[in-house]
C-alpha cells in the first residue's frame, strides 16, 4: 500500500495544480510515504535514555516502580502505561494537555502540597528536559532487557557467544536471510515479495552511489535476463567513483554530523583506496599531520580538543556505538556493568590531548579526577568499555619548570607551524589498541555493522544506534554477532559488508505491504522507505533533469563517470538549502516553499535548454509518449496505465500552453513523494 500511495502522489498533485495559474504552483505535499512509526524515533529514545530515565531511576523508582518495597500513591513511573494511568491523584503525564500532567507540576514545586522530589527541587535544566520530553509525546521504550538492572545481568553478547552461530564460511546474504526468515517464521509473518527490477536498481544506485540511475541504466537492467544481473550491478556500483564519493558523504556525517571539520579531505583519499575501517579509526585517533596518507585525519580531534567530555563521548558513539554520558555523574542506571569508572576511564584516554595551534598534541603527563556519588574523589584509570584497565607508566604532576617549558614549546609550535613532538606513551594509541584487542573488538565491529545495516535497511539491528550496550538486545542477536565476527575476520572491509547486505533478500524486499497491520521495522519483513539525504536529492535532481542525449554523448565508461561527477558537484549546491532527514522525516514548510517559489528551481531544473530534459519532452508530439518518457527519466520506472491517462488528460487540457504544461508536469514529478524517498 505504501508504494501505491507513493506512485500516485505525483498524479494527485498534478490534478490539484492543474486549476492553478502556472506562476503559482501548489507546494509539494508533505512526504508521508514512510509508515507511521509504531514506536518513538531513535532520537527521542536517545533523549529519554540520556536525560529522563537516569533521573527517574535515581529520584523516583525507589518508591514508584515494580521494584518498590511499597508502591506509594499507587503510582508507577517505570513504564509509559504507568505514567499515563497515574496514581491516586490522576495521570502523571498528559502530553496532549498544556500543563503536561502532574509529574511536571510536581517537579516544578509550584504547589506546596505536590513536590517531587519532596526535599530538593531538580535543577532548572533537568526540569526543562522533562518539559521537552512530555511535549514531544513522552517516549518511553519498554524493552524487557532494559528493565533488568540486577547486578548479575550479563550483556546479551555473552548469551549469544554460548550458542552456536552459523559457520564462518557461509556467505553474508545467506546468513542474513537465514536469521531474518527464522524470526519471521516464529512470528508467522509472510514477508513482502522482492521489489521490482526498476525499484531495485534505483534503491541500489542511491545506496551505493548516492544518485538515481539514468533511464538508460534502468532499461538495461530491467531488460537483462542473466541470473547474476543483480550481482553484476552491485559489483559495478561498488567499484564506481561514485561509490567512493558517496561513502565520503556518509562517513563524514557519521563522524561529524555535518559540522565542517576538514575531515572530508582525508576520507576522500581513504575511500578511494578502500582503506579499512580499523585503519580509519587508527588514523583519526592518531591525528598525525606528518603522514601524507593521513592528511586531514586530525580534523576530528581538532574540532573537539577543547571539550574532552564531548571528545570522549563522540569517540564512544561514533566508533563503539555507545553513549557513555549517562555514567558521567553516577553509575549507569540501566547497564549494571557500566560505572562512573568506565566514563572517566574512557575520558582519560584523551586527558593529555590538547590543541597546539594548527595541530593536536599529546602531553607526557596528565590525569583526570572525579567525584563519586558518595562524594569520594578518585583518580581515573585508563579503562575501556569492557572494563579492561590499561597499565601505564606511573604518572605524576608536572613541576612548575615542566609546565613553563611546555608552554614555551606550545608557543614555538604555533609560530613555527610544526607539530608538537609525540609522547613516549600515547594514551590515544592505547585506546586504539584496547578497542581492537581480541575480546574487545566486538564493540568496534558491532557498531559499524549496525550503522551500515541501519543505513541500508532503514532500521538498525539495535536501536537507537548509539545505545549498543549489553542490556539493549538486538532484534537479531545472532545475526549481529555473526556479522561482527565476519567483519573482523575479513579485516574490517566495509565494501565486502555492503556487498553482502545489498545482495540479501532482506534488503531487496518491496516497500509495499498488503492487507493488515504493517510489521515492526525491526522484523525486516518489508522495506522501509527512507528520505533522500541532501546530497542524494541534489544528485538525483540533476540526473533526472538531464537530457538523455547528454548521457549518450558521454556513453564511454570514463566519460560517463566524469559527467556524473560533474552533475553531482552541481547538485551538491543544493545541500545548503536542505536538512539531513531524521528518523521521523516529513517535508517541512520551508522545503515545500523553496521548491515552489525558488528561481533556482526554474533556472536549473525546469529550463528548456538543449541539455535539459524539458527540451526533448517538448519535441514529443504524442502526450502518452511524453508522459511515459517523463516517468522513465524522473521516477526511474515504467509508467502505469492509470497514471498515464491522468497525465495525458492534464496535458490535453493545457494544450493551449504546452510548454507550461510540460514544465508543470516535470516539476510535479520532481517534487513528488515518490521521488523524495528511497523506496
How would you describe what is shown here?
With 679 residues, the protein is mostly helical. Among the domains are: 2-34 and 531-678, no CATH class; 42-136, no CATH class; 244-436, no CATH class. It contains 33 helices and 6 strands. It is globular, with a radius of gyration of 28 Å. α8 packs antiparallel against α21 and α20 (441-457) packs across α21 (477-489). The chain has helices at residues 2-17, 42-59, 80-85, 102-108, 124-135, 144-147, 156-161, 172-186, 197-209, 215-223, 229-238, 241-256, 263-272, 277-286, 299-302, 308-320, 340-348, 400-416, 427-436, 441-457, 477-489, 494-502, 505-508, 534-544, 548-553, 557-572, 589-597, 599-605, 614-618, 623-635, 641-653, 658-670, 673-676; strands at residues 353-356, 359-362, 369-371, 377-379, 530-531, 677-678.
Main pleated sheet: 2 strands, antiparallel
Shape from CA axes?
globular
**Whole-number radius of gyration?**
28 Å
Helix count equals 33
Strand content: under 5%
What percent of residues adopt helix (DSSP H or I)?
40-55%
- Contiguous low-pLDDT stretches (5 residues minimum) are 1-39, 143-149
Task: Please identify the oligomeric state.
Answer: single chain
What's the total number of strands? 6
Terminal CA distance: 12 Å
Structural class comes to: mainly alpha
Mean pLDDT: 85
Strand order in space, largest sheet: 1-2
Amino acid at each position: 500500500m505504501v508504494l501505491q500511495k507513493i506512485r500516485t502522489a505525483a498524479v494527485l498533485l498534478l490534478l490539484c495544480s492543474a486549476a492553478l495559474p502556472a506562476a503559482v504552483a501548489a507546494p509539494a505535499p508533505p512526504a508521508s510515504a514512510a509508515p507511521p512509526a509504531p514506536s518513538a524515533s531513535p532520537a527521542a529514545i536517545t533523549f529519554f535514555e540520556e536525560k529522563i530515565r537516569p533521573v527517574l531511576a535515581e529520584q523516583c523508582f525507589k518508591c514508584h516502580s515494580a521494584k518498590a518495597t511499597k508502591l506509594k500513591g499507587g503510582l508507577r513511573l517505570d513504564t509509559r502505561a504507568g505514567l499515563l494511568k497515574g496514581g491516586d491523584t490522576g495521570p502523571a503525564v498528559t502530553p496532549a494537555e498544556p500543563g503536561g500532567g502532574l509529574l511536571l507540576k510536581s517537579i516544578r514545586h509550584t504547589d506546596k502540597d505536590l513536590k517531587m522530589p519532596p526535599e530538593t527541587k531538580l535543577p532548572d535544566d533537568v526540569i526543562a528536559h522533562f518539559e521537552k520530553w512530555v511535549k514531544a509525546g513522552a517516549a518511553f521504550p519498554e524493552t524487557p532487557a532494559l528493565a533488568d538492572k540486577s547486578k548479575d545481568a550479563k550483556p546479551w553478547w555473552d548469551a549469544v557467544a554460548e550458542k552456536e552461530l552459523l559457520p564462518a564460511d557461509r556467505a553474508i546474504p545467506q546468513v542474513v536471510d537465514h536469521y531474518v526468515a527464522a524470526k519471521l517464521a516464529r512470528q508467522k509473518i509472510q514477508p513482502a515479495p522482492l521489489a521490482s527490477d526498476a525499484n531495485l536498481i534505483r534503491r541500489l544506485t542511491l545506496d551505493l552511489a548516492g544518485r538515481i540511475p539514468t533511464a538508460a541504466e534502468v532499461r538495461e537492467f530491467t531488460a537483462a535476463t542473466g541470473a547474476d544481473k543483480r550481482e553484476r550491478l552491485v559489483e559495478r556500483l561498488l567499484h564506481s567513483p561514485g561509490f567512493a564519493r558517496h561513502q565520503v558523504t556518509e562517513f563524514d556525517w557519521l563522524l561529524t554530523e555535518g559540522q565542517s571539520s576538514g575531515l572530508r579531505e582525508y576520507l576522500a583519499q581513504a575511500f578511494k583506496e578502500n582503506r579499512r575501517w580499523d585503519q580509519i579509526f587508527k588514523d583519526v585517533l592518531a591525528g598525525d599531520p606528518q603522514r601524507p596518507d593521513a592528511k586531514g585525519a586530525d580534523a576530528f580531534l581538532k574540532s573537539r580538543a577543547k571539550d574532552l567530555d564531548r571528545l570522549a563521548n563522540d569517540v564512544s558513539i561514533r566508533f563503539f556505538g555507545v553513549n557513555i554520558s549517562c555514567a558521567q555523574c553516577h553509575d549507569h542506571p540501566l547497564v549494571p556493568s557500566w560505572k562512573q569508572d568506565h566514563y572517566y576511564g574512557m575520558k582519560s584516554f584523551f586527558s593529555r590531548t590538547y590543541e597546539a595551534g594548527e595541530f593536536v598534541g599529546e602531553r607526557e603527563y596528565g590525569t583526570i579526577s572525579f567525584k563519586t556519588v558518595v562524594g569520594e574523589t578518585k583518580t581515573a584509570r585508563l579503562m575501556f568499555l569492557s572494563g579492561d584497565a590499561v597499565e601505564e607508566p606511573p604518572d605524576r604532576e608536572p613541576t612548575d619548570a615542566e609546565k613553563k617549558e611546555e608552554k614555551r614549546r606550545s608557543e614555538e609550535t604555533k609560530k613555527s607551524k610544526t607539530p608538537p613532538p609525540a609522547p613516549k606513551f600515547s594514551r590515544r594509541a592505547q585506546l586504539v589498541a584496547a578497542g581492537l584487542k581480541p575480546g574487545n573488538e566486538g564493540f568496534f565491529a558491532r557498531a559499524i555493522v549496525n550503522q551500515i545495516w541501519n543505513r541500508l535497511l532503514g532500521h538498525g539491528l539495535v536501536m537507537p544506534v548509539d545505545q549498543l550496550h549489553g542490556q539493549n538486545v538486538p532484534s537479531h542477536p545472532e545475526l549481529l554477532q555473526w556479522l561482527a565476527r565476519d567483519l573482523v575476520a575479513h579485516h574490517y572491509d566495509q565494501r565486502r559488508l555492503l556487498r553482502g547486505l545489498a545482495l540479501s533478500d532482506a534488503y531487496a524486499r518491496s516497500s509495499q505491504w498488503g492487507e493488515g497491520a504493517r510489521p515492526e521495522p525491526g522484523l525486516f519483513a518489508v522495506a522501509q522507505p527512507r528520505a533522500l539525504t541532501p546530497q542524494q536529492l541534489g544528485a538525483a535532481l540533476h540526473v533526472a533533469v538531464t537530457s538523455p542525449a547528454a548521457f549518450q554523448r558521454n556513453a564511454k565508461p570514463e566519460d560517463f563517470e566524469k559527467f556524473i561527477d560533474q552533475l553531482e558537484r552541481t547538485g551538491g549546491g543544493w545541500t545548503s538549502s536542505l536538512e539531513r532527514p531524521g528518523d521521523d522525516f516529513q517535508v517541512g514548510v520551508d522545503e515545500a516553499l523553496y521548491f515552489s517559489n525558488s528561481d533556482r528551481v526554474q533556472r536549473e531544473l525546469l529550463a528548456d535548454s538543449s541539455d535539459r530534459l524539458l527540451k526533448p519532452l517538448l519535441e514529443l508530439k504524442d502526450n502518452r509518449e511524453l508522459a511515459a518518457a517523463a516517468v522513465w527519466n524522473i521516477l526511474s520506472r515504467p509508467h502505469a496505465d492509470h497514471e498515464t491517462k491522468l497525465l495525458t488528460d492534464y496535458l490535453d487540457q493545457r494544450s493551449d500552453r504546452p510548454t507550461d504544461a510540460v514544465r508543470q508536469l516535470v516539476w510535479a514529478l520532481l517534487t513528488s513523494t515518490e521521488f523524495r524517498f528511497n523506496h
